Amino acid sequence: xxQIIPSNHVSISPSLQTSVRKLAINPNQWYxxxxxxxxxxKPLAVTIWKQAIALYRDSTGKVHALEDRCPHRQVKLSHGxxxxxxxxxxxxxxxxxxxxxxxxxxxxxxxxxxxxxxxRRYPVKEQDxxxxxxxxxxxxxxxxxxxxxxxxxxxxxxxxxxVSVIQTQAHYSYLIENLMDMYHGHLHQDLQAWxxxxxxxxxxxxxxxxxxxxxxxxxxxxxxxxxxxxFFPALRRLHPExxxxxxxxxxxxxxxxxxxxIYCLLCPVNETETKAYLIHxxxxxxxxxxxxxxxxxxxxxxxxxxxxxxxxxxxxxxxDVKMIEEEQQAFLQNPEIRNYELNRALVSVQKLMKTQVxxxx
Length: 361
Prior knowledge:
361 residues, alpha+beta, 18 strands, globular, metal-binding, Rieske_2Fe-2S
């Protein structure tokens, strides 16, 4: 683990800056492609780094992921339907099982054999309210030897969740840099949860970059009434809190004091499009009396307050996406223009992205 004390000036070479904006992904990781509630027995089309994939549930509720392509005429299988646990193409009714093998052709003659064509099956897991997919190349019927990052707070009764979807016409590196750079709180004004951020140190290795900031926070959730600070800015009072942000490739996680934790789960689509899920957790750990209540009642409170920070989170996303897309357009119009950077964490992040992609090649 390397620890870096930031200096006053940072140099990002034009060649590194340019190459990062065109980077692919390391496919040998788990990415989030959908929320659990989005996937039903009606196929759902998703894309992870130029790979079109059809997600669907079988009759037992298990989620499967197949290449979104019928090998017969190359149309999308996601236009079809699930019949007897098989994915049926809308065009001619060819069916494919969960391994991607052709299982039925409705007009197959008695003297004909099923085509031996096969489409790709992707390892997929349903965990913590999301669908995690592994796009890397592995042997058939072999599962990846690593696990998804996961969200331990998702089912924890002491955490209230809010989910916002990020859709941006920009390379994923812009989103990660935005999330790792706590100095951009200037953009958010009354929506931000912190002020006066100051980078203290950086820990990094080949899998992650952890940046530790100190900040002044508006929120401290230690009394029932203090939750109202989420909705009434006039009630907020600044106090010092540690602010930690980590790029745990390929995802991001942040903690602000003991009260807030945020994840950003990435699904890069291509060089100029990124989808991500931003999940904000508010902790109720400080309310010890709440912990003595019946579990069913605590579950009711958790479910009732789901999305409590929606307006706040969506507002942050709108502002960030606007800036990120302007950065992308500026790069496309003139990739030779050099950025001047003062936050050393962004240099570490760019190097990590390159290291991960190089590892996968």
